[in-house]
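User: Here's a chain of 571 residues. Predict its fold as tokens.
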Amino acid sequence: MGFTWSIRGRRPGAEDVRPVGAAPVERGFIRDTGAMRPARVTRRWARTVFRPADVEVKGRWAMRTWKVIALACVVAAGCGGPLPEEAPPSDEQGPVEDFSPGDGEGGATALWNTETPMLSRARLVKDVLPDASFRGEEPMNLVEFRGRLFFTARQEDGRSQLWKSNGTEAGTVVVREFPPVDGAGFLADLTPVGRQLFFTVADAAHGRELWVSDGTAEGTRLVVDLTPGPGDSALNNLVAVGQTLFFFRTISTEPGGPGRSELWTSNGTAAGTVRVRDFGLGTSASFGPVLVRGDSLLFFVSAPESRFELWKSDGSRAGTLRLRTFEPGPQGNAPNSLRDAGRFAYFLADDSVHGNELWRTDGTAAGTALAADLTPGPASSDLQLLDVANGFLFFTEREPTGAELRLFRLGVSGSSPGAPSLVTTIPNPFPSNPEVFSFVTAFATTGTRLFFSPAFFATGPAPIAHQLWVTDGTASGTTLLHQPLSLSDEFTTELFPVDGLLLFPANDTGPANTEPWVSDGTVKGTRKLQEIQPGGFSSFPHAFTRVNGCVFFVAFRDDVGNALWVLHVRR
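Assistant: Prediction complete.
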């Protein structure tokens, strides 16, 4: 389970101290192409070599030395203090070299007091399936809880496991294990709520039900058996609203018959798990998005006769209110994409009069109204909501006769929202191909900028182009940073913000070289973080999760398969 590191220091005599985004000293990335293949690698721990240039650089002596020492302490101690039942993490060595997106891959040259963070090289934390003959997607369901990473794993024999990690191999342990139950699926839906971690899992006595944990084996227990006996409860959309868990329960009647949806809340006890509202026969509240706004939850319910309803709940019967009913036109568009933008929440909906357009709500029936009708009349606009950044809500409209994407912004910082304005048009790289269509696969806001990733498709399931863009809300500030991102039909690209930087998987030598990348929002500052899978093949990094000063993620390497990795964020 070892791993190979190839770490280059700064060039001898180098004296330049460059901020993030500056030109690299040297690149030297592997640029071979090829398909994934079995391989074995040897273990060689990385070492940081101190040079005179590292100790004194333009009068700023010892800054990098102390920075590396501090980062080494973080690596040894893991990510955060111990839970009450834990001993402090053991000293575990690992790579301690810093990485700044504007530097060469081997050099950590940014100053200690720079406002842009630095990322250490990622290191393997643990292989949680060491004896598996088949490598699945584990680890899964990564979440931060009480200063630790919690996640799930499925063993080959069907056992479901709840794990926790402090960022060290010794501190990555099983909290609770559940024997296999035929046809019941695996542990899922990890949802932190205050000092409790809720999830769903099945056991032989109760079927799939709601459980809770305080992070210890002794403190992991069944909350309530909503479907008494071994039958399963269909629970979904678990979400924290303040210190309360909200979730929906779907009840089936007869096979093929209409079911019904209910809204529930829980404080982690059987007595404190209560049904708030039964939405009636033929309803479903499991299909659409949910949005937490203050102490309330916004959500959609599909109702009989192809109607869709927008609801709001504060967890009480009296405070659970229907805000508006939508009866879509011939296209049957379901509402989607709830986004919080301060005074209002925005979403897309079709009321048969305006087609599928942009709506807003302030949480009241009177304050739920059409925000913009880009295609007047009953015809629908082909819109996709992105995110809020720099006081604007961003969204795209796909050009009706081609694959171009128009990027719009809507001011949301004032008391009265304005009208949408066109920022720029994202061009179609294949204008001569009439079968090309496009949409944004991911987006993320960091600082005042929005990152987003348009993908272009033709006849197959995999994209033929996949790009990373950034915008500050102006045409001149909207820039193509890198292409291609993932070109796989089974692995999409995640965008993960880290204190002004962006972590994401991308390629640089072809479709078989997906590795972790980082960007500071400039073309020069957008580059590969490191090569995890040797030989120019893909590690497919995903599930980025922040825990204090660490970012955990899952990546593939031939000798360990999918495993847990971590990198450190330092300033």
